[in-house]
Amino acid sequence: MKSFRLIVHQKNFSAEDLIINSKDYPGASLGDVVEIYHPPPEDDNPRSKKKSEPEEEYPRLLLQVKAFPDDSTQQIALQKDTISVEQSIAQTFGLQPYKNVIIRIVDPPDVALDSIELTFKDQYMGRSEMWRLKNSLINTCVYIKKNIEFCGGAVRCQVYEMWSLGDRVACGVITEDTKVVFRSSTSMVYLFLQMSSEMWDFDIYGDLYFEKAVNGFLADLFMKWKKNGSNHEVTIVLFSRTFYEASSLEVFPLHMRECLQKDYRGRYYEDFYRVAVQNERYDDWSGILVQLRRIFSEYLKIVLEYHKRPGIDIPAATNSTAAQGNFLEVLNMSLNVFEKHYLDRSFDRTGQLSVVVTPGVGVFEVDRELTNITKQRIIDNGVGSDLVCVGEQPLHAVPLLKFHNKDTHLNVPDDYSMPHWINLSFYSTNKKIAYSNFIPRIKLPPHLPSDDEKKESPKNKLVPQDDYIHNSFFDYDAYDAQIFQLPHAHTVHENSSVNHHRVLPRYKRTSGSLLDSHELIKGQRRKMSDPDVPHRIDSNARSEPIAIPPAAVSPIISPHADGSEGSPPLESRALINPFDPSHVTIKLTSNRRRWTHIFPKGPTGVLIQQHHYQAIPAQSDLPATEDGSNPKLDRMISSGSNHSFSATSALHDYCKKRPNSQTNNHSVPTAPKNPSKSLTFLWGATGEQEWTPALTTAVNDVLIVALIGVDWKSLTIPACLPITTDYFPEKRALQIDYVVSLYSLLPDSVNADFAQLRSTSKRPLTTVEVFKELISQRLAQGFQLILMANNADKIGINVLNPKMRASVVRTSVTESDESYYLSIGRLFHKISLSGNTISVTRYRPRHPYPGFNYQYRYRFHAPHHDTYEESYASFTTEKLEHFNWNYLDHYVCTGGDTEFVLVDALKYWRFRVYLLPLNNTANKKIIDGAEHCDIYTAATPTDHQQMVDGLLKFIETAVNKIKRTLPSKKTRKSLSVINNAPLVQPRRNSMSNFSQNVNCSSPFRERLGSNRLSDRPRPRSGSKVMERNRTSQSSESQSSSESQSHDSYPDENTIQSGPCLKNAATNPEIVEAMKNPLSGLMFICAQQNLPCSTFIAADAINWLMLRMEGVTTVEKAVQIMQSLHSENLIRHASGDPNKPFLFGFFLFYIIDKDDKDSFQPCGDFQIFENEWLEVEVKSALNWGLSVVSTGLDVPNTYCDRKYGVPHFLCEDINVEYAEIDSVIYKRMRLETDVASKSDRVEWGHVRYQTTFMPDQAYELIVEWLTSSGSIVAELLSSWHRKAQTCGLQMIPIPHDPLALPYSNKSDPLRGPIFVPLNIKCLEERDRIFKEFKDNTYLERLFLLQEAIVQRFGFINCMLEPPNNPDATSREHQYVHCTGTVFVLISRPAVKPRSRVPSVGSKNRSTGRFSVHADVVPSPHEAYITRHVSGKNKDDYDNSRKMGFLWSWNHMVSRRWRTNQGVDNNFQTKLLKDFREFCGNVNDRLRVFWEESWVTKENASTSTDNYLRK
Question: In Å, how far are 153, 696, 993, 1094 from 958, measured between CA atoms?
Answer without folding.
Answer: 22, 58, 28, 18
